[in-house]
Amino acid sequence: MRTAFAAAAVALLSATAAACGDAGQLQSAGPTQTADSPAKLWPDLRPASSPAYPYDVATRETVKGLTVPGGDIRKIDPVDIVEAELKAHPADYGSKGAFHGTVDRVKQCRPGGDRALCPLLKPYYRDLTGDGRPDLTLGFRLYPTNQTAVRVYTVEGRRLVQVLADNDAILGVELAGRALIERNPADISGYEYRTTWEWDPGQRAMVFSRDEYLHTGTGPRIHKASPSARPSASPAASPSAS
């Protein structure tokens, strides 16, 4: 019986192979490239003891003059938050500041104003800090430049705390998990620049974590290392956005 069973199995496999022909057969993809280990360059070079540039990877600031009713960030008016920033940073928003045109525009956000002139964008509420409560992602245009202010706020007790402040020329902003992703115009045709900020419980702020050039159009494709070390844009005017 064992002999007959073995013979039947061989016959079945032979028939299956004949029926399938070449369909589904594995084919060679060519020789495998030999893996190269990283080559360490200039082993005798003395290591740097301090950074070349002062990278500002996180910003954190308690908003003065405002309290959050009941600790619920949804109960505070976003216009009040923007006006508090204008008052706290006269160097940026004063008559000689880079964003002086924003002050008059914000007045249009109040009842009776021209909403078409209001620079404030739609606020979004989402838990970015992981404490189970919504945080506020806020954006407003910075006139007379083409830049947009991107801000994230959380609540500690009844204090409103700004945990991200970035100004740049913006193509779009996305929220993914506890990360905020900015899409910016790149200086290379067919590319855009993306920056990712993630919540860091140690610094209690949204920390700059990654940036990259991404190919989006028909321009020539280039290779850009990612992530790269890019300092975060301060709340002052960004040098890349005019």
Automatic annotation (TrEMBL):
Stretches with biased composition (Polar residues): 25-36
Keywords annotated in UniProt: Signal
Lineage: Bacteria, Bacillati, Actinomycetota, Actinomycetes, Kitasatosporales
Stretch list, region Disordered: 24-47, 217-242
Domain of life of the native organism: Bacteria
Bias type Low complexity, positions: 225-242
Position of the signal peptide: 1-19
Organism: Streptomyces murinus
Listed name of the protein: Lipoprotein
